[in-house]
Model the fold of this input.
Amino acid sequence: MSSPFPASQVIDAQTSDAAPKTVVLVAHGQPSAPNPPEHNLAQLAEQVASFLPGWQVRSATLALSGRLEQVVQPGALVYPFFMAEGWFTSKVLPKRICHVDHRQLPPFGQDPNLPELAARLVRQARTAQGQPFEAAYGSASGSASDSGSDPSAPGCLLLAAHGSARGPKAAAATELFATALRPLLPELEVRTAYIEQAPYLADVASNMPSGSLCLPFFAQSGDHVKDDIPEALSSAKFDGTVLPALGTTPEVARLIAKAIQRA
Done:
């Protein structure tokens, strides 16, 4: 099928006689409605390109038929805009472009600078709640009934992730990220929960102290972020603040550009 999107998203801030270097941002997308995530990824590619003079920054979601094959070219770097080195990044993506010489980079969720970015977002959210960075709120016990009983107890951050019924890699990536995040937010207890595997999001959220934060550990705001997470939190009577999906923050473009430069 023909694609409604341009073959590349390019911002060249410098003129060079050499052929531009090419990177392709690849995300999962939304099979039931592929066009909106495709547009969002194209916008991200434009933002990344603004930090990479002389590069061609292209984009494709796996959900839009033929799009990836259209934009990838020999010698390109392929940047998986995924949270884990799981089924799609290790099996589906390489198979789709096995006929083209390319180099696949580590996924977005494994960027060593991502925990610090997440920590800044959480601190900003706490400030918006009226909580200074060093202050604490809620209860570390995990029981909503005694929330607020000890003002010196740490608050709570719920890291909401996808998980996977296919294998352990998705959850392992989330737990690794949480382990890196905890020292950066010593005033918070960081808990993890999943949509597709135990511990399930609704179960963990039901025991979160009042005023907790929830950070979706997702690259894009698809149905899981728009529907599944709110549904689970609502059923758990979660009364805290839900932050935007981690991959949608404006600072992500610069982080991706730096990862590409390191490569």
Q: What stands out?
A: The two ends are 33 Å apart (CA to CA). Residues 35-49 form the longest helix (15 residues).
